[in-house]
């Protein structure tokens, strides 16, 4: 694996006649990221990954400052799992015209950014769209590989790719979970032992909502039960539990016919804000 610090050097090195799968990351890599790299390697000639902690998508300075940074072990993991090109840029390489400039500026994402993470983290998705549009401009991959854990992020990036007419496919890889069901996340590293145990409850509550939906329980009852179930643990402070249509991200109303039914949550656990989701069911209609 070769590491490149500038867009120019990476672009010069990338093969022109091969399929390229691209895994954008913010580092502090774990088995969830490696599932993305492996899925990428299975279906493409080469895998490119990037590590860039994008300042414009953080709406909380402390979160940006304390975001785990482990570039040496990240590089070793990527190499082991078949990544051939690592792009490790600085802020000036990503934003040569300053962080104000964004190719995605002015895109109205409508309901896709009006709820959940969009409502709770002002500006977050503008920063994500800004950095991903720039990264795609640099890497120009055949396929962009993203994790299902960031369900709303995938929806926003999909919409951005469509609106900007970027010729790239999107491959979404299922969430990788720890033994107790906690979704793997770089931020989990910041949980102490008690918080880590408490965080296991998040998946339990989402699974209960999914089971309730399949059994025909009303949406508002299930959301309330999950919120109070999470809140019973002193170490957890749930922000939302939302059941929604996976295509529009609009709240699901009992009886609606949707292609993909999803439940998602965000929970403050000690110093860390954790998100997770479950696809309840899918149909091809
Ligand atoms: O999901 C992430 O790690 C980030 O939001 C991404 C897609 C790498 C953009 O900074």
Automatic annotation (TrEMBL):
Q: Catalysed reaction per UniProt?
A: (R)-pantoate + beta-alanine + ATP = (R)-pantothenate + AMP + diphosphate + H(+)
Biological process GO terms, please?
pantothenate biosynthetic process
Stated EC number for the protein is 6.3.2.1
Q: Which residues are noted in the entry as (R)-pantoate-binding? A: 57, 153
Name the residues that bind ATP: 26-33, 147-150, 176, 184-187
Does Ligase show up as a keyword for this record?
A: yes
Record localization: Cytoplasm
Q: Where is the active site?
A: 33
Keyword tags? ATP-binding, Cytoplasm, Ligase, Nucleotide-binding, Pantothenate biosynthesis
- Sites binding beta-alanine sit at 57
Task: List the InterPro entries hit by this protein, alphabetically.
Answer: Pantoate_ligase, Pantoate_ligase_C, Rossmann-like_a/b/a_fold
Q: What terms describe the molecular function in GO for this protein?
A: ATP binding; pantoate-beta-alanine ligase activity
Q: Which pathway does it serve?
A: Cofactor biosynthesis; (R)-pantothenate biosynthesis; (R)-pantothenate from (R)-pantoate and beta-alanine: step 1/1
What the entry lists under Pfam families is as follows: Pantoate_ligase
Gene Ontology cellular component terms for the protein in this record: cytosol
Tell me, how does this one assemble?
Answer: Homodimer.
Q: Other notes on this protein?
A: The reaction proceeds by a bi uni uni bi ping pong mechanism.
Of which family is this protein a member? Belongs to the pantothenate synthetase family.
> What is this protein for, i.e. what is its function?
Catalyzes the condensation of pantoate with beta-alanine in an ATP-dependent reaction via a pantoyl-adenylate intermediate.
UniProt-recorded name of the protein? Pantothenate synthetase
**Source organism phylogeny:** Bacteria, Pseudomonadati, Bacteroidota, Saprospiria, Saprospirales
């Amino acid at each position: 694996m070769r590491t490149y610090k500038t867009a120019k050097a990476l672009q010069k090195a990338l093969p022109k006649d091969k399929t390229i799968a691209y895994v954008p990351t913010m580092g502090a890599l774990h088995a969830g990221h490696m599932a993305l790299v492996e899925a990428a390697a299975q279906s493409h000639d080469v895998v490119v990954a990037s590590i860039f902690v994008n300042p414009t998508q953080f709406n909380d300075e402390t979160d940006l400052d304390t975001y785990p940074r482990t570039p040496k072990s990240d590089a070793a993991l990527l190499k082991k799992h078949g990544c051939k090109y690592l792009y490790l840029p600085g802020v000036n390489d990503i934003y040569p015209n300053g962080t104000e400039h964004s190719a995605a500026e002015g895109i109205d994402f409508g309901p896709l950014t009006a709820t959940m993470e969009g409502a709770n983290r002002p500006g977050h998705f503008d920063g994500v769209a800004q950095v991903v549009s720039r990264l795609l401009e640099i890497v120009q991959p055949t396929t962009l590989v993203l994790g299902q854990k960031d369900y709303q992020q995938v929806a926003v990036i999909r919409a951005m790719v469509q609106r900007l007419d970027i010729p790239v496919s999107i491959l979404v890889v299922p969430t990788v979970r720890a033994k107790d069901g906690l979704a793997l996340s770089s931020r989990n590293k910041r949980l102490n032992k008690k918080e880590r145990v408490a965080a296991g409850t998040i998946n339990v509550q989402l699974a209960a909502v999914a089971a309730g939906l399949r059994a025909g329980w009303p949406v508002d009852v299930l959301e309330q039960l999950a919120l109070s179930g999470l809140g019973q643990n002193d170490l957890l402070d749930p922000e939302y539990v939302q059941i929604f249509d996976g295509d529009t991200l609009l709240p699901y109303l009992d009886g609606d016919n949707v292609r993909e039914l999803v439940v998602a949550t965000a929970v403050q656990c000690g110093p860390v804000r954790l998100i997770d989701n479950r696809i309840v069911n899918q149909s091809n209609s």
